[in-house]
Amino acid sequence: MDQISFHHNSVLSDVHLLLPNAQHLMTRLNQVGQPVFISKFKILSDGERHDSNDPEKCKRKDGDEGVVGNMEPVVDEDGDLDIRRRLQKNPMVDIGRDLVCPIILKQSNPELEQEEENTNDEVNTYFKDIIRIEHTMATPLEDVGKQIWRGAFLLADFILSKPFMFKGATVLELGAGTGLTSIIMATIAKTVYCTDVGEDLLSMCKRNVILNSHLMEPSGEISL
User: At the top level of its lineage, which domain of life is listed (predicted)?
Assistant: First the structure.
């Protein structure tokens, strides 16, 4: 289930490519039969942001980890960089039988979607700094809006760093995709109009808005 299949016309966002498989959880099939995954992202507090940008703390952290950070790059006999892959944290133990991956058989329908939305909304109420986004993985070019892209994170980071600029504002987002940026904006702005093209994409975006409704301002709202 964690294996990603590529076709000649498939496109995969670097956000999904660089996340470990453990961060992706396949939940269902969408209306056109594409696997839908859910990923969790943490909204850093001001203190956590400053710590991550403090070069002195980064140096101390590297020092605590030993001499690994000061090692010379390893090259092969031709002088090319020799990439050493990191060992698995939990290597698979040979248990004498084939690995079996579960298959998600259900396809989404309105009743199941409503049930999942209600359940997830109750669970997420207790995580004020966690945003959960449903998305697809590798898609054809015309469906890339169903993935999460780095530009959405850059814009979200800008919004969170300039809260007074958007406080109480009315905002229109064109081409919202999964709705990540609109959801972040709704934590500050009064009203957000979230727009895109495609019934299936808008349905996914609506689910993401409901999943993260606990993050929004009490007086804020998102209209699709």
Answer: Eukaryota
Q: Quick one: the chain helix, strand, coil %, rounded to 5?
A: 40, 15, 45
On whether the CB atoms of residues 150 and 178 are closer than 8 A, the answer is no
Residue 78 carries which DSSP code? T
Q: Is the pTM of this model over 0.70?
A: no
106/104 Cα distance (integer angstroms): 6
**Spatial distance between the Cα atoms of 182 and 205, rounded to a whole number of angstroms:** 10
Whether the CB-CB separation of 203 and 177 falls below 8 Å is answered with: no
The three-class DSSP label of residue 140 is strand
**SS3 string of 116-164?**
HHHHHHHHHCCCCCEEEEEECCCEEHHHHHHCCCHHHHHHHHHHHHCHH
Angstrom distance (rounded) from CA 172 to CA 198 = 18
Each residue's pLDDT tens digit, 2-37: 555 555 678 888 888 776 655 567 888 888 888 899
State both tokens at 14. Answer: 């670097």
Helix (H, G, I), strand (E, B) or coil at 15: helix
Query: Based on the number of CB atoms within 10 Å of its own CB, is 211 exposed (0-12), middle (13-18) or buried (19 or more)?
Result: buried
Fold of domain 10-48+101-223: Rossmann fold (3.40.50)
Residues contacting 121, CB < 8 A, separation 6+: 210, 211, 213, 214
Classify residue 208 as exposed, middle or buried by CB count within 10 Å of its CB (0-12, 13-18, 19+): buried
